[in-house]
Amino acid sequence: MICFPNAKINLGLNVTEKRRDGYHNIETIFYPIPVKDALEIVPAREFSFSQTGIAIDGPAEKNLVMKAVNLMKEHFDIPPLDIHLLKAIPFGAGLGGGSADAAFMLKLLNDFCSLGQNEKELEALAASIGADCPFFIRNKPVFASGTGNIFTPVNVSLTGYMLCLVKPDIAVSTPEAYSLVKPAFPETGVKEIISRPVSEWRELLVNDFEESVFARHPRIEQIKTTMYKTGAAYAAMSGSGSSVFGLFEKPVSLKENFPDCYVWEGNLP
Asked: Is 132 a catalytic residue?
């Protein structure tokens, strides 16, 4: 059985306050995009995990896919499986690829083993893996608050827009990015802004990480600037970076502009 975990982008991201536990509360919109990995399981005599595509550092047991498998094994009788992950979503990009892989593994095992878990029960399991993992269970646009773990359905559609996603060969430390942000509640919340036409987002919808990340990595800011120069209706960094996305009303091809970067271009469903 095979499935195709997809990435997400952040439409706006406000770091609103620092919590007593050291984490931060945020407000953002998680929006699914059709940039996908492939995840396959087949019956086997013993558990095994292999991975191809974009190389991932670290041992297999640290991979979020195996964390999801081991979590399910704690609660259910899971038969031995040969598990293969074809990695195509860039990691360290603010796209949630690892979280998507883990959440889709939970759903895959639920279907393959006929476990009968509903979406709410799968979300509870996913929450123990990572804050944004539960989002990928329902995989629909949501307003995310708390640490990015409290979801409220939101009515936003980017159908018909072309998405250009660019990730430079730059690593951004998420803890460092948070440490450089001054938390504050915005004058206008992201839910109100995204209800307006996309053409108005440029001046209103912000990612609080951009200021400090751009100061340390001008290349990322340059990518955003290039997208606007080539006609993007809206462009922004996703999460704490390092990927930048642009929404275009007309087809474009920017691959020649970013020969040293990962580039994905396609229409949003």
From this structure: yes
